Amino acid sequence: QVQLVESGGGSVQAGGSLRLSCEMSGSTWNEYCVGWFRQIPGKEREGVGSMNRYSSRSYADSVKGRFTISKDNAKNIVYLQMNTLKPADTAMYYCAADPGTRCELSIRLDGPPRDTDYNYWGQGTQVTVSS
Question: What is the 8-class DSSP label of residue 109?
Fold first, then answer.
């Protein structure tokens, strides 16, 4: 059974950086797309970025140039490096895994991931950016 565990959230001032981690157990990231999402209470979940098994990536316009997804195959962990953080980035952040190819469309279109493409979800980690 695939399980995802996020970590690395916290509080930071605007302009600062955080790195979120998403560790997979029960399988390996080499066989999955990873999607990062965020959600503010009362609002819809927003796609942040995704990376397929070939390490092709795409991001939402709101984070392009500031956020980067990477992977450590040896540790089976995917990262979301977040730089130049803004108060608008404050949200609960989730990682998700797609075992198929549904994630590929958003990557080909260079757009944000769609949550309906993903089967497995982590529990979330809170990121708070103060001004």
Answer: T
